[in-house]
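Hello forum,

I keep getting stuck at the same step: I have a sequence, I want structure tokens, and every attempt I make locally crashes halfway through. Rather than fight my setup again tonight, could one of you with a working pipeline run this one for me? It's a single chain of 453 residues.
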Amino acid sequence: MTVRIASGQGFWGDWLEAPVRQIEGGPVDYLMMDFLAEVTMSILQKQRSRDPALGYARDVVPLLARILPAVVERGIRVTTNAGGVNPDACAAAVAETARDLGLRGRLKIGVVTGDDILARLDDLLARGVTLADMDTGRPLSDIRDRVLSANAYLGSAPVVQALAEGAQVVITGRVTDTGLTLAPLVHAFGWSPEAWDLMAAGTIAGHIIECGAQASGGNYLAGWPTVPSLEDVGYPLVEAEPDGSFVVTKHPGTGGAVTVASVTEQLVYEMGDPRQYITPDGVADFTTVRLAQDGRDRVRVSGIRGRPATPYLKVSIAYAAGWKAVGTLVYAWPDAYAKAREADRVLRARLERLGLKFDEVLTEFVGVNATHGPLAGEPSPDLPEVQLRVGVRAGDRDGVERFTRELAPLILNGPPSVTGFAGGRPKVEQVVAYWPALVPKAEIRPAVRIVAA
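Reply #2:
Ran it on my machine without issues. Output:
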């Protein structure tokens, strides 16, 4: 028995054609769509605070509208964390769309909740759950009044439950990226949640396809000059077996490339200690992974080992950390770099004269050293153009606002040959900082309910 799981989205903002192409391009059993990143949760929380009907990745509704008829007709099942901080509202919108498509009574939607612990923070703190920053050890009480969102990373278990209860589309909040792929495998193969090698294998399968085309030719450092038809890139699929081995591939006739190198690059993406890739479902040892080319655009993955899960869940907390603004000007040849440096010097001198204090002032010279910093060395004096990019950050919004009014005057009272200010005054934005913490699993109570279209 082989189970085919297709990756349809790697983040909120990914290619909206990808899920459609995955459904139409060949046989698949499951479609996985990952929408969430750490900062996404705080954005969605702010949206929900303004409108209780919002708080989810709204792209998912028109996207599903394009594929639901085929999903229902062919018995494909969809797992997605597009529910963000409001899975119930997301499910309601999808159900309404299904009814509009004439699918009333033909679609069951599973809703997974329980990850959002924002309203429970004070109770947890009062009972001695410190939610200390994993990097610094500081207690959450230090920034409690500035917290914007708090979501525990759920594992695959509630998604497995939703599938077992007949859900054809499962919409979750903050379920791990890997759990969206692992859950279908656990459900399809009947894996025990304590079969640690198998859980690790499913986790690694999920890790490989969670970022969409990054495993099948996109953002491919080792092979990018020779990747064929990138405009037609095929998103990755896994063809999984009950023993935990699987093949990474893509639909035939699509662009991109699935090679040992492309899969390896995705394996090491966001990797800390490769021996301890910790998820709610278990600990995967990436040093045991064996990759082998198994034909064109086919990479076989095997040998994976895992260890028992920890008694904790990671919590992603976002909090307000001041204000920022970033502005740019472009200086043209001759002496483009010298002009940009002089403009930066003048700007900083004027900010100092105004008595403005910032937590950080960051200057980048795009086209010179914004990517590689000091390693870039001295640029050629014949550079045709250089973009000056200056950003400031402070706890005081007023000071940041005043900075935005100091950039435009440089067009006429600074160095010559300047352009690139057509967008107007820089926008002041709230800085959202990330606070990683741990919470005992016993404190988190995932819930699953089924909604009929």
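DSSP finds twelve helices and 19 strands in the chain. If your local run keeps crashing, start a new thread with the error log.
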